[in-house]
Amino acid sequence: MRQPTNMSTGVRSVEWVRAQPGGSWLVNRMEHAYYSWNAPHKGGPQLTQLRSVGLGHVRAGSRAS
Questions:
Q1: Would the pTM count as exceeding 0.90?
Q2: Could you say which residues of the chain have pLDDT below 70?
Q3: I need a surface site. Which of 2, 13, 25, 58 has the fewest CB within 10 A?
Q4: How far is residue 2's CA from residue 26's CA, in Å, rounded to a whole number?
């Protein structure tokens, strides 16, 4: 717990509890309850087209130099 890190004290404390015997069960139950109460609303705007990723459009028969 006293080693330097960029995590907050709360996060480090939860991860410390998770590492203890029986701690993972407790943390999992707490996270399940939290995310059940704070779940995002269903629905929302739908995608109209997928984002393009990668190198872009490559024409057939062309070669990269």
A1: no
A2: 1-3, 56-65
A3: 2
A4: 23
